[in-house]
Amino acid sequence: MPKRTLLSCLAVALLLPSATARADGPGQVLVDKGLVSQEALDGAELFFRGTFSGNGRTCGTCHPVDNNLTIDPEFISTLPPDDPLFTFDLPPDDGFLEREDLLAPFGLILENVDLDFFDGVPDMPRVDFVMRSVPHTLSLSTSIDSADELAEPQATGWSADGSPDGTLLGFSTGAVAQHFTTSLDRVVGQDFVLPTPQELAAMETYMLSVGRMADLDIDSLTFADAAGERGRDLFLNIDDFPALPGQEAFTGGKCRFCHNNAGADIADQNFNRDTGVEAVVTPARLAATFPIDDGHGSGTEADGRFNVPPLVEAADTGPFFHNNAFDTIEEAVGFYSSDTFNGSPAGLDLSGEGIHLAPGGKEDIAAFLRVVNAAFNIAIAKQRTDAAALVVTKPRPIPCIWGLPCPPPPPEPNEVTITTLLALANVEAQDAVDVLSERSLGAAALVELDLALDLNQQAIAEQDANARKLLIVSAAQHLESAGAALGGGLDFQLGAGNLLF
Ligand code: HEC
Ligand code: HEC
């Protein structure tokens, strides 16, 4: 299924009146069925449709539900020129909210992370800024428990200090002021309105309910693909291997020193590290001049350190790192064998010889991350497909009158909910296909995925409720089989917010 067809289905579903709350909107039936809480739905409404009287952007402008809650150059290239993402020149003096030369080509967003817009001190937002990639907002409930040494209540944003008050709850206030404003003076009540305490709480509830709610136990996983098995073992390995005569010495991946269980935490603490990524000469650095990103803290307090992100979500959310330094997951893994990493404060801090993967090592670790990501995609696809099956309405048969043509069945009252859930299920299933097939992984799973994609597509078009339900239930079974075909133990505790859009 080409992505464009999926997206046009979605476009129809999402072309709904823009308002901050839609009582009886297509999400309401999910609350009525007990699948999500009212507060999470209210939060999603604000996240995807709340403009806070600003420049027309919503949180979903940069964290869209049909692109893993993030944006990248490929996605940006599909947007119409009047999309509010492309808000560049603002008063006073036509200053830039975004850097036009860095947004579409490199997916980089202007962030005034070191400024306090609300302290009454005049700011220089066009001088004091950094350019950052958009992180997905998946699985935040597993990744924001700040390490004690960070002295941040919660670790949010690439340098863990993205929120004005250091919490996820307060993050939305900062995001509205940063991204939604109609002027660089950022006058509250004039250039945008701030979320109320109740709205902040609803958005936090929604954000904490998307993605995974718990980390995997990667030790216990088994993989159908040998490369996945090798990659997991190397990911966990913290040894330095003795050099063979005439050869370089190699090491384990040592990834678990920072990404325990392919997550973002060590013992439930999310740390910051200076891994040298900022020193990489990226394509954006070659094309344009912009300030160096000094990471956590500001001014003389800045320490060049960035926050550890979770890796289960990584493979389909490239480009990678806070500066979109690398396009492929293989390149991102390969970075850890570079002199730049090994010479960085975090590299020098590692036990032994730093990280030097043997030939094939980065491909194996990437294969492991690809399979885990595909399994996660499939689990969300199944979660959405299962929900669609629950929402299909039992048709009340309309009696046929003898001699007259039978009346058509009554229209499905939850049509938008069902078709959107199925289209979004297929977005995830397609991501799984892409992530696996790019490196010839998961052959058996791919067969099941193709069947599921096709069945869900048929179900979107099917008008008869009974036939539709059969198609959806069958799609869910093939998704289940696809997940099982990747290996054992790949079970995710998923949040209910994955059903919201
Ligand atoms: C113009 C694009 C844009 C818009 C609009 C936007 N964001 Fe973001 N978002 C970003 C970028 C860039 C970052 C990284 C910021 C940083 O490193 O501090 C980010 C980071 C985040 C994070 C931190 C994720 C993590 O892994 O720690 C959260 C949470 C978040 N955004 C929520 C929101 C909410 C809520 C809204 C709407 C009120 C919103 N964003 C609107 C671009 C955007
Ligand atoms: C010393 C701690 C540390 C170690 C060891 C480490 N990482 Fe990281 N990892 C980080 C930090 C910090 C970031 C964010 C860096 C940035 O963007 O500046 C990161 C980011 C990543 C990303 C990008 C994720 C995204 O969403 O863009 C990938 C992929 C990754 N690491 C994979 C690995 C792999 C594979 C290993 C083992 C070979 C590894 N990491 C070892 C700390 C570490």
Describe the structure.
This protein is mostly helical. It has a domain at 369-499: Four Helix Bundle (Hemerythrin (Met), subunit A). It is 39% helix and 4% strand. It has 17 helices and 8 strands. It has helices spanning 3-14, 28-32, 38-49, 59-62, 73-76, 100-106, 168-179, 197-207, 226-236, 283-287, 329-334, 339-342, 345-349, 361-391, 415-437, 443-461, 465-486, and strands spanning 89-90, 95-96, 109-111, 130-132, 222-223, 272-273, 306-307, 487-488. The strands form 4 sheets. A two-stranded antiparallel sheet has the order 1-2. Strands 3-4 form a two-stranded antiparallel sheet. Strands 5-8 form a two-stranded antiparallel ribbon. Strand 1 (89-90) and strand 2 form a beta hairpin. The longest helix has 31 residues, at 361-391. Residues 1-9 and 11-20 have low confidence and may be disordered. It binds heme C (2 copies). One heme C binds next to helix 4, strand 3, helix 7 and helix 8.
